[in-house]
Design goal:
The protein has 28 helices and 18 strands. It is α/β, with parallel strands linked by helices. Strands 8-7-6-9-10-11 form a six-stranded parallel sheet. Strands 15-14-13-16-17-18 form a six-stranded parallel sheet, with helices on both faces. Helix 25 links the parallel strand 16 and strand 17. Helix 6 runs antiparallel to helix 8, helix 6 packs across helix 25 and helix 7 runs antiparallel to helix 11.
Length: 680
C-alpha cells in the first residue's frame, strides 16, 4: 500500500513540476525554439533542472566543509556574524575563512589541472610529431616554433665548420617538446614562460615567491594543503592558489596554445558561421564537442575526404557538415572557419533538432545528460578519451590514438554517415545563424595594427593614450543555467563598446557575441562609441576580437604583455587601463583563470556568484587585500550593467594614474538605447 501511495505522490509531484518559459531562459531565438520543441517532445534539459533544483545556500556562501568524515560542517552566515561577532567554527575548529579558502583553492587546483592536462596531451602529441612517430601531424608554423624555442632556451642554429647555420626544424621541435613536457614534472627552479611577463611583474612574482616550480607540483601541493589539518591560514592558501594558477596560465595553458599553433597553424582572421542554423537537414551532421582539438583537427580532414563524401552520397546525404560545440568548436573555427553549432547550454538542444547524426566528445563541459537525450533520438554519442567516459545512456567509445589519428577520425565519420538513414524524429533546425570574423591571435593583432614589416602594438597604445579607445576588456567564460542564457554576456559587451572599450573574448562569451552579430567589422558603427568605431573602421576589425578557446586566455596575457612592451601605458600589466570579466561563469577552470589574471595584475569581476560570501574576512582579502600585494583583485557583481560601470570606473582610474585621463562623459544605456539595439 505504501508503495502505491508513493507512486501516486510522485505522479502528483511530476504534474506540479514548474514548467519553464523558454523566452525567460535565453535571449537566443534558436535556443528558445529548441526549448519549445523539447517541451513538446517531453525531453528534460538543464534549463528544466535549474528551475526545479535550487542551489545549496551554504554551498553558495563557500562555508560547507567536506574535507573529512566528521562533516560536512555547515557554517551559514548570520546577521550576528556580519556585526563582527563571528564565532562559527567546524568540528576541528576550522573558521569560515579557512573553509572558504580551502574550497576556493580546490577549485583553482581542479581548474588548473584540467587546462594543464589538456596542455600535457598537446605536448605529448607535439613530441610524437617532432620525432616523426606519427605522420598525421606536422610542423606547420616554423616561425612560431623558432620564436618559442628562444623561450625554452633551445638553440635554433648550429656551428658547422665555424659557420653558424640553421638547425633542422624537427631537431628543434624535439628539444622544445621535451622541455615543454618537462614543465609538468619539474620539482624545482621555475617555469620557462615566467620570463615572458613584463620584467616588473616577473620580479614581483619572484619577491613574493609565487613563480611556479612545476605544474603538477603546484596542483598537488594545493591538494595537500587543503587536506584536513594542514594549511589553516587563508592568506597562505591563496599564495599557493597563485602559484598553481600561474602554472596554468603561464605554462600549461600557454604551452597548449603555442604548441597547437605550431602543429595546426597560428590563427589569423577567417570567416565563419555560428548557431544551430549551421546544421543541414539533407546532410550528415557531425558535432565535435569539448576542449582538445587533437582529434577534431583530424575529423576536419576526414570529413572533407573525397571517399567519405562519396560514401555519404551513397547513403542519400548531399554532403557532410562538421560543426563544433564549446571550445573544440572555437579551435576548429579559428583555424579552418568550420561552423559552430552553439555554446555550452546548447549542447542538449543540438540533439533535439533531430538532425545530429553523431556527437563526438573529448573532455570538459560535457553534460552526462547528453547520453539520456541521445537515447530519445537517433544520435550516436561517441566518447574518444580515456579521461571522459559516460556510464549512463547508450554511448559508443572510439579511443583516439595520435599514432593513427586520421584512421580514428575516419572511423568516427563513417559511424555518423551510417547513422544518417536512421533519423526517426521530426527534424527541426532553427534558421538562426550569424556570420563572424574570428582568429585574432596576438600575432594577428600585431599584423593588423602594423602590417607585415611594421607589425606593432604601438597604434593600439597610441589610440588608448589619445582617448579614442578608453581601455581594454577581457570578457570570457561559460554559460550558467542559473542565469538567462547569453544575456549578461551581451549586455556587458554592448555597454563596454558604447563606452569605447575594446573587447577581447574567448570561450562561450565569444560564441554569445558571434550569435549576436558582434564579431563582424560592421558591428563597430552600430554598437561602439565614436572613438572605438573610428579605430575599428580604419583598421578593418570587429570591436570584439575572438581570440579562441578558453585555454587561449593565455593569448590575452600575451597581448597585455605586448601592450606594456609597446610603451606609454606603464611598466606592468597592473598599470594598464584594462579589466576582465566572466559574466556567466560556472566551471572550476574559470576560477583558475580568474586567479592567474589577478596574480598577473588584473581586476577581475565574476558574475552569478563567487562562493566566498560566508567568509567576510576572506572575501575582503580577495576583493581588496590582494590588490596591495599583486596589483590585481577579485570582485563579484550579479548585474551586468553594474559590471560595466565598475570595469569602466577601474579603467578610468588607471587612465588617471597614467596621466592620460580626459574630461569625457560616461554613457550608459537607457531603456530607449537598449530597445534600439535589440531591434538591430
Amino acid at each position: 500500500m505504501a508503495a502505491e501511495e508513493t507512486k501516486e505522490k510522485l505522479k502528483v509531484m511530476e504534474k506540479e513540476k514548474k514548467q519553464i518559459i523558454p523566452e525567460e531562459k535565453s535571449v537566443d531565438p534558436a535556443t528558445i525554439l529548441m526549448l519549445h520543441k523539447a517541451q513538446a517532445e517531453g525531453i528534460e534539459t538543464i534549463f528544466d533542472r535549474a528551475e526545479t533544483m535550487k542551489a545549496c545556500n551554504i554551498g553558495l556562501q563557500g562555508t560547507c566543509c567536506k574535507m573529512c568524515a566528521q562533516g560536512p560542517c555547515r557554517l551559514p552566515l548570520t546577521k550576528k556574524d556580519l556585526e563582527g561577532k563571528d564565532t562559527r567554527i567546524g568540528l576541528c575548529g576550522a573558521t569560515p575563512e579557512t573553509i572558504a579558502a580551502r574550497n576556493f583553492a580546490r577549485m583553482v587546483a581542479a581548474g588548473s589541472a584540467s587546462h594543464s592536462d589538456h596542455g600535457r596531451a598537446v605536448a605529448e602529441v607535439f613530441l610524437a610529431a617532432a620525432r616523426k612517430q606519427t605522420t598525421d601531424y606536422k610542423i606547420k608554423d616554423e616561425v612560431k616554433l623558432l620564436k618559442i624555442a628562444e623561450d625554452f632556451d633551445v638553440a635554433t642554429t648550429v656551428l658547422v665548420d665555424g659557420e653558424e647555420k640553421p638547425r633542422d626544424i624537427y631537431e628543434i621541435a624535439v628539444e622544445v617538446g621535451e622541455r615543454a613536457l618537462g614543465e609538468w614534472g619539474k620539482q624545482e627552479g621555475e617555469i620557462y614562460y615566467a620570463r615572458r611577463a613584463p620584467k616588473p611583474r616577473y620580479e614581483l612574482w619572484k619577491k613574493l615567491d609565487i613563480i611556479p616550480r612545476g605544474i603538477d607540483r603546484e596542483i598537488v601541493e594545493i591538494m595537500h594543503r587543503t587536506h584536513m589539518g594542514v594549511d589553516q591560514d587563508y592568506q597562505n592558501i591563496v599564495k599557493q592558489c597563485s602559484r598553481a594558477a600561474l602554472a596554468d596560465g603561464w605554462a600549461g595553458s600557454m604551452m597548449a596554445t603555442d604548441l597547437q599553433d605550431v602543429m595546426f597553424g597560428t590563427p589569423y582572421p577567417i570567416h565563419g558561421e555560428i548557431n544551430l542554423g549551421v546544421l543541414k537537414k539533407d546532410q550528415v551532421n557531425i558535432i565535435v564537442h569539448g576542449h582538445e582539438p587533437l582529434l577534431s583537427e583530424m575529423i576536419v580532414v576526414a570529413s572533407q575526404d573525397p571517399e567519405m563524401l562519396k560514401y555519404a552520397a551513397s547513403k542519400g546525404a548531399k554532403g557532410i557538415v562538421l560543426a563544433g560545440m564549446c571550445c573544440t568548436a572555437n579551435e576548429i573555427l579559428v583555424r579552418h572557419g568550420m561552423p559552430i553549432a552553439g555554446n555550452y547550454l546548447q549542447q542538449e538542444l543540438a540533439i533535439i533538432t533531430g538532425a545530429v547524426d553523431a556527437l563526438v566528445v573529448d573532455v570538459q563541459c560535457i553534460m552526462e545528460n547528453l547520453a539520456n537525450v541521445a537515447t530519445c533520438y537517433h544520435t550516436k554519442l561517441i566518447t574518444t578519451n580515456t579521461r571522459c567516459k559516460i556510464a549512463s545512456g547508450k554511448t559508443e567509445h572510439v579511443q583516439f590514438n595520435e599514432h593513427h589519428a586520421l584512421e580514428d577520425a575516419k572511423k568516427i565519420v563513417k559511424i555518423a554517415v551510417d547513422n544518417f538513414p536512421n533519423r526517426r524524429a521530426d527534424v527541426l533546425i532553427p534558421k538562426e545563424k550569424e556570420k563572424m570574423v574570428v582568429g585574432f591571435s596576438s600575432e594577428a593583432i600585431n599584423y593588423h595594427l602594423g602590417g607585415t614589416f611594421r607589425g606593432s602594438y604601438v597604434p593600439l597604445n597610441e589610440n588608448i593614450i589619445n582617448g579614442r579607445i578608453r581601455g581594454i576588456a577581457g570578457v570570457v567564460g561559460c554559460n550558467n543555467a542559473r542565469t538567462m542564457h547569453d544575456n549578461s554576456h551581451l549586455i556587458l559587451v554592448k555597454e563596454l563598446l558604447k563606452n569605447d572599450v575594446i573587447v577581447l573574448t574567448t570561450g562561450c562569451d565569444a560564441m554569445a557575441c558571434g550569435k549576436a552579430g558582434l564579431l563582424v567589422p560592421e558591428a563597430a558603427r552600430i554598437y561602439c562609441g565614436p572613438g572605438l568605431a573610428e579605430v575599428c573602421e580604419t583598421v578593418g576589425i570587429p570591436p570584439v576580437l575572438h581570440m579562441g578557446a578558453c585555454v587561449d586566455n593565455s593569448r590575452i596575457l600575451i597581448a597585455a604583455t605586448e601592450v606594456v612592451k609597446a610603451g606609454g601605458l606603464g611598466k606592468d600589466i597592473s598599470d594598464l587601463p584594462a579589466a576582465g570579466c566572466a559574466p556567466e561563469w560556472m566551471s572550476e577552470k574559470a576560477v583558475a583563470i580568474g586567479q592567474y589574471f589577478v596574480a598577473s595584475g588584473v581586476y577581475v569581476i565574476f558574475g552569478v556568484n563567487l562562493p566566498v560570501e560566508g567568509a567576510p574576512v576572506f572575501k575582503d582579502y580577495l576583493f581588496n587585500g590582494l590588490e596591495k600585494i599583486v596589483g590585481g583583485k577579485w570582485d563579484m557583481v550579479e548585474d551586468p550593467y553594474e559590471m560595466a560601470r565598475k570595469m569602466i570606473a577601474h579603467i578610468d582610474l588607471k587612465r588617471k594614474a597614467l596621466g592620460i585621463d580626459k574630461a569625457r562623459e560616461r554613457v550608459l544605456m537607457d531603456m530607449a538605447d537598449r530597445q534600439k539595439l535589440a531591434a538591430v
